[in-house]
Amino acid sequence: MKALIVIDVQNDFCPGGALAVTEGDQIVPGINALMEDFDAVVLTQDWHPAGHSSFASSHEGKEPMSVIDMPYGPQVLWPDHCVQGGGGAAFHKDLRTDPADLIIRKGYNPAIDSYSAFFENDHSTPTGLHGYLETRGIKDVTMVGLATDFCVNYSAVDAAKLGYAVTVRTDLCRGIDFDGSLAAALAGMADAGVTVS
To answer: From the candidates 8, 12, 46, 113, which is the catalytic residue?
Structure first.
């Protein structure tokens, strides 16, 4: 059993969004076409309450893309994005959502960010995705989406640690590349046993 995990293809990560990833919208047709090839399709959705602790606006004097120490480790402070119920949090209008068996919302805890589809950024609080895949008998996952160097990267490495066979389709991902983060993520995924294609 194989699953396609589509990471955060949302308006705020596409051109014109609050945290736009260059060419983020260009991967949508390829992702849609790939859905038919899998036993299960899972979509993830960044889903932050207003005033989330990962927003620079929640920290006086801090600028977006600065880094602070949180109880769970270093945290990049982002522009306000993917606020629950807002247009930026919605899936890109052209993304097929009907084939999805499951939508995982993450980042809804105001005190901790959640890049990975499997765990919050404390690396221990689960999202429930692992349990779902286990009960479905899925051992093989392919990941696509946004952004390569953050949410795709964290999700892929966590999936490998949990024992899944993991492929990341870089042609159907786009990265932020914050201070060399893209090259580091690609190397880290390969080191974790992820097939980066």
So the answer is: 8
Confirm whether 177 is a catalytic residue.
Answer: no
Nearest partner of 46 among 20, 84, 4, judged by Cα: 84
* pLDDT attached to residue 127: 96
106 is catalytic: yes
Residues of the chain above pLDDT 70, percent: 100
Cβ atoms 55, 113 nearer than 8 A: no
> In sequence order, what DSSP letters do the residues of 119-132 get, joined into one string?
B-TTS-SB-SHHHH
Active-site residue identified among 12, 80, 113, 151: 151
Residue 147 preceded by cis peptide, ω within 30: yes
Please determine, for residue 67, whether its predicted confidence score (pLDDT) is greater than 90: yes
What are the CB-based long-range contacts (under 8 Å, 24+) for 52-61?
Answer: 52/80, 52/83, 52/107, 52/110, 52/113, 53/110, 53/111, 53/112, 53/113, 54/78, 54/107, 54/113, 55/79, 55/80, 55/81
- The mean pLDDT of 16-37, rounded to a whole number, is 97
176, 147 contact by CB (below 8 A):
yes
Task: State yes or no: is 151 an active-site residue.
Answer: yes
Closest CA to 186 of 145, 142, 140, 152: 152
Of the pLDDT bands very low, low, confident and very high (cuts 50, 70, 90), residue 171 is very high
